Amino acid sequence: MVSFNEILAQASSKKEVTVAVVMAEDLEVLSAIEKACSYELANFILIGDEQKIDELIAAHFTSLMETGRIVTRHAANHSEAAQKGVRAVSEGEASVLMKGHIETAPLLKAVLHKEYGLRTGNVLSHVALFEVPSLKRSIFVTDAAMNVAPDLHQKVQIVHNAVAIAQSIGVTEPKVAPLAAVEVVNPSMQATLDAASLTQMNRRGQIKGCVIDGPLALDIAVSEEAARHKKIGGEVAGQADILLVPTIEAGNILYKSLMYFGMSQVGAVIAGAKAPIVLTSRADSAESKLNSLALAICSSNN
Questions:
Q1: Does pLDDT of 230 surpass 90?
Q2: pLDDT, tens digit, for every residue of 46-55?
């Protein structure tokens, strides 16, 4: 699995990409954009309170003015900013949408708008990539932020979205582990039933571009030693590239555990729309936002 340094290099090698940033008047957001410009990752349309954006740039990020990579556009409120950002992408002016200092709900409302939105008819899902020091490799986690309790049909699309992101950074046939508490099918545990169904669908060619095996507990999915100890074989055990969580609670806890206990670097995107969406938390660091931008740029169509 590639590192974020490799992903940054891959993103910077792509042809010109433009990112529309909704409510860009935020220090961490602008810091990430400044770093992205130093890597020559993209051009940026900064949407929001134009006066505040200009004041922050003049006070803290003067190098941005010299790059020739930014333009600013005024929006009177969050709703107008979200609409302008989504329209920039839907009309082909930008190929990535980025959340700035705005709540998720108004941004997604614009993304899902019937006239100018970015919906495709597919499930939108959160795909996070972690560079985990203890594993000495990177691993995807999905879905930790969008789908609360996905059913089997939704999980198929969540897998499809994650596989597409993995393939965009060079993981040609990712190994997918549908997570559960045990490695056997238990009729009273829906996660194990869904995992078994996904595995069979993959073996019959209904889910392509990856290898799925489950149900697997987390230790079996990521540790070859644990898999050997429990005598669990297969292509995925101990080697998973993508961890498919059963619910948003499980995903959220795993996501934050990897960040705060595992001290992992992270980058995340929303996949399944017409273009990748950088939907980081307002509390995320500039580094996380930069990683997310690079991942989104790699997975964009440009």
A1: yes
A2: 999 999 999 9
Residue 256 CA to residue 207 CA, distance in Å, equals 29
Could you count the other beta carbons within 10 Å of the beta carbon of residue 225?
9
Token match 């614009």: residue?
A: 110
User: Contact 67/41 with Cβ under 8 angstroms?
Assistant: no
Contacts with 106 (C-beta within 8 Å, 6 or more apart), sequence order: 78, 79, 82
Question: Which residues have a Cβ under 8 Å from the Cβ of 94 and sit 6 or more positions away?
Answer: 18, 19, 20, 45, 85, 88, 275
d(CA 19, CA 93): 9
What does the angle CA 298 – CA 138 – CA 289 come to, to the nearest 5 degrees? 50
Confidence of residue 281 (pLDDT cuts 50, 70, 90): confident
C-beta atoms surrounding 270 within 10 Å: 27
Strands 43-48 and 70-74: parallel
Cβ proximity of 101 and 23 under 8 Å: yes
